Amino acid sequence: MKFQLKIMKISGFLPEFNTCLKCGQVIENDGYYSGDLCGVGCSDCLNDPRGKVILHKKIREFLNYLTESDFDIITDYEVKATEKICQSCFDFLKECINKNSLKQIKSEKALSFV
Asked: Domain ranges in the chain?
């Protein structure tokens, strides 16, 4: 998952996880992912959660930590992450790319987004 996050960061596809992209407020708890914003919004700005993906605080912390950690170091987050958490993150990242890409990403299978 580190590879996918780092590629997304380099290519400009990495969503904002920490700050509401509507009001600029730092999100302390759970946030809502909005494909239209290509990042998270706070509960005040996205008061209608239909069609939005809830990004729990722990998931946001996990994704941020993996984005900034070195490839060579296995973090506590990686050791503790369950298969369900990892699959949820992969599904989320896949949705981010598909929502914000003009074309179907052909390398999706090679990047383990299936």
From this structure: 2-108
